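This part of the workshop introduces the protein records we will be handling. Getting from the letters to the C-alpha cells is the skill we practise here. An example says more than a description, so a record of this kind follows:
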Amino acid sequence: MNRIEKLQELLQKMPDDNFLRHALALEYIKLGNDDDAKVLFENILNASPDYVGSYYHLGKLLERQSETTAAIEWYEKGMAAAKKANDQHAYNELQAAYEDIVY
C-alpha cells in the first residue's frame, strides 16, 4: 500500500484529522496533483484557521498556479494565525514568502 492509500484509509476512520489531511495534501503535491492538494489545504484552513502549518504550503501552491492575489491573502491570514499562536518560526516563513511576492 502506498502512502496516499494509507493516508486515505486513515482518513476514512478520522476524516477531520488535520495532520492526516495536511500529509495527504503534501503527497498530492509530490505527484503534481496541486488541485486536490489545494482543496485539502483550503478545507483544513476554513475549518481550523489555527492550523498554521498549512498556510505556507497553500500560498506556495497558489504561487505556482499564478494565483498571486490569493497567495497573498493566505499568507496574510497565516501571519495573523501564527502571531495569535505565538509561532514566530511560522510567522517568519510566511512573512518572507509574502515579502517575496509583494516587494
